[in-house]
Amino acid sequence: xxxxxxxHQRLQLTLQPFFNHxxxxxxxxTLSLSLLLVLFSFANAQDQTVKDLKKESEKTIAKDxxxxxxxxWKTGGIFNxxxxxxxxxxWAAGGDKFSFSLNAYLNLYAFYKKNKHSWDNNxxxxxxxxxTTSLGSRKASDRIDFLSKYGYAIxxxxxxxxxxxxxxxxxxxxxxxxxxxxxxxxxxxxxxxAPAYMLLSLGVDYKPxxxxxxFISPITARxxxxxxxxxxxKFGLDSGKNVKSEFGAFLxxxxxxxxxxxxxxxxxxxxxxxxxxxxxxxxxxxxxxxTASITKHINFSLNVDMIYDDDTKNVDPTKGPAPQWLxxxxxxFAYNFGKK
Length: 340
Known about the structure:
Elements: H1 2-15, H2 22-57, E1 73-87, E2 98-114, E3 117-132, E4 136-155, E5 158-168, E6 173-178, E7 184-190, E8 196-209, E9 212-225, E10 243-259, E11 263-274, E12 283-293, E13 298-308, E14 324-337
Antiparallel strand pairs: 1-2, 1-14, 2-3, 3-4, 4-5, 5-8, 6-7, 8-9, 9-10, 10-11, 11-12, 12-13, 13-14
């Protein structure tokens, strides 16, 4: 307000020489009063504007949930650890003095979805050992399985897709037998990357529901790696060769079902036909996992796997190719990685 009075006084001094006449003096008073009112109104308007801006700046903006962008990545996993131990002393029913078994399983996944693009990644790791007084330490399970699939939507429930799969194991595998004298003996029948199966495939992926999909490919390259020269012939490789290439058709079906509030069933079936040799002999990989949540960190699990490969010799060399079966069941610690 002091600024307004000062401006008004300066205007009076400036206009004084021009207002000597009585009429001009009245005009001067009228003009000065009008100017004072204009300046006063302008000052009030400025004060109100400042108050409005301050009030506006103090407002908080609430984010509308409908405006949030959809997450493109979904990640998570589960870790299971089953441990069993037993001991005996002077036990009339008989048995080993000490037994111990451990089986660990880790599953990690990362799924990407944005517009027409999708990218599914899954990693399964498993390893188990059994130790008894009479038999010593033996391997119970051993698996490395990585699957990656990219898809581009071409129609409802249908994607053009590319798939990569790698399967192998962590450590040496042995076959156990007895000599003519009844002595236990063992021989190495597998090892890390002996064998390893890598599959590259182009095809279509049918996914009518989130928990079921079928990938079909008439164009698939499969490579069998055996880094041990001695073991190579056991897996259908020529002597002195460490890699065998195959070309054929491939199908992979995946299904997961929630049974009630506690049980979850997950299955995967892979079929491969080699155009180059005996295409009628279908190679099979079938994996099944049933889990039940007992408490937050205690799970029951049942794993049943079956593998059939016409080029893989039987553990018993006197017999031909046969299905390979693995069954594991246990109760133990479980930890679920949070879904993000």
